[in-house]
């Protein structure tokens, strides 16, 4: 299933154009393989341990589907969706059975419905900081219950060079931002995955699982 298409000329930020173009294609080629799916499965098993019943999932910045493939193992009956800005990555994601794919910038995406779990993994760090509020609003609006951020953590915002490029990687306390913006969000669980884990490494990601209280507005 597919939906949406975004022209380079419509992008609001340099970061969007960066990921929609050549660098985004290179990223997809560097980050693929069964070992990534295994590591993702191990991480999401920890995330879901205290998540309760999850029947629908939306990933913002899904790339070629390494996270959704892991979640398919853990949630075989769940409805899965992904938003991806890079056209080549979105085309590859469409090869995954029974995933609703939206080729779009997450700064423009309008969710057609809510999902039990809405998440980012290694995506918020690449969003222009001036646009983060838009993404936080989207995550909160698109989720019926759970929000997950799995990103590089820093207690204060920092901008660091990324593969020779400036203004392309930003660390901060994304979960803290979300909780300040939406004070009703409750912290369900959190964890860290080390790049030197001998079995299931990740890229030094810290994840936070947040929950909207029952009956809270979108």
List key phrases describing it.
single chain; 218 residues; alpha/beta; Rossmann fold; 8-stranded mixed β-sheet; two-stranded antiparallel sheet; 10 strands
Topology:
Layout: E1 2-3, H1 14-20, H2 22-30, H3 34-48, E2 56-60, H4 66-74, E3 79-84, H5 87-93, E4 99-103, E5 115-121, H6 132-142, E6 143-151, E7 158-159, E8 170-171, H7 174-181, E9 186-193, E10 205-211
Parallel strand pairs: 1-4, 2-3, 2-5, 3-4, 5-6
Antiparallel strand pairs: 6-10, 7-8, 9-10
Instruction: Work out the radius of gyration.
Output: 16 Å
User: Looking across the biggest beta sheet, what order are the strands in?
Assistant: 1-4-3-2-5-6-10-9
Through-space gap between termini: 25 Å
Number of domains: 1
Profile the largest sheet.
Answer: 8 strands, mixed
| Beta strands, count | 10
Strand content: 15-25%
**Which stretches are low in confidence, meaning pLDDT under 50 for 5 or more residues running?**
none
Q: Spell out the CATH superfamily.
A: Vaccinia Virus protein VP39
H/E element order: EHHHEHEHEEHEEEHEE
* Helix content, binned percent: 25-40%
Q: Please give the CATH architecture.
A: 3-Layer(aba) Sandwich
Count of runs of 4 or more consecutive helical residues: 7
